[in-house]
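#struct-help
A.M.: can someone run this one for me? Single chain, 355 residues.
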Amino acid sequence: MNMNSPSTEVLRRLEPLNALSPDSLREISRMCYLEKISRNLDPFRLKGLQGQAVYLVKGELKLDYPDSSSEILVGGTEAAVRPLDQRKPALTGAKAITDIELIRLDEEVLDIMLTWDQLAAPQAAAQSKKAPDAMDQTDWRTLSGMFAAENLTHGIFSSLPPANIEALFMRFERIKAMRGEVIIREGGDGDYYFVIESGRCTVSRQIGGSAVELAELKGGDAFGEEALVANARRNANVAMKTDGVLLRLAKADFVELLKEPLMHRISRQEAEAKVAGGAVWLDVRFPAEYNSEKLPGAINIPLNEIRNLFGSIDQRKEYIVYCQSGRRSSAAAFLLSQRGYKAYLLEGGLRSNAA
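D.P.: on it. Structure tokens below:
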């Protein structure tokens, strides 16, 4: 069985994928799998239809139904543009009459992409109660950095309640930024959350009187959340490395629309039950604090190192994030959650959970 990604030309002929914008269709094509199956085989014997939208795009497939009837479905025809799992009544069996090609796509991914794509269209904004302006008329679907499939399905926007989506579009402010422009200053107030639509930024911090570059951010990356989540001062400088466009969200809107949906708070009792089931304690304090007072089995990744270690943290595990008061751990839990990790915040930190 050979698997690869189908072309957007093929996807454009399928329903409801044909309703997606060109940019969204390109994004979702990377989430699809093209299966080639030899004649006389049952394509669903090992891998069924449940939880997936499956399309026949090439060849002839015999479909069996509960009343003992059957039909021959031919890929590329009008009868084959809808997912096989939507055929009524439900299938009881299938057999490839010829060599066939199927496209598989996770139903949840498809539903997420369809929801965002429809709400991101300019007419959706124009129909809101708010008087339309230039921002309302933006076709958000073309903002490929912000609306990368990974962001919508596993990143910061994946846990956003659908009711918050249009409100998010209404409250984001799109601003142009020039090369060298300082967006965030170390020690300043946490007032905005930023998503990079285009361009690149550098993150630096004053260490020993000199600016030390910590990271480089690109389109689709977000910054500014740590000070907003923890109600703290900015802990780094962020400046434009190139000309670009930023999406800016005020603190109150960030808290309402993004922070709360992503912040999964749990009690000490709930946390210990999760740890007993395989979750991991994640201590985000400095090593000296961790070594003097740590929870059994905890791993230590200080808050200021979280961003640099995303790739090495096992995304299959659940993490219970804690610090002394809950302030640093709330920022760390948000950073992990917006990258698609299953992170829970120990409510109140160690201080309020002391024996």
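A.M.: thanks! Residues 2-108 form a domain with the Jelly Rolls fold (CATH 2.60.120.10).
D.P.: also worth noting: The radius of gyration is 24 Å.
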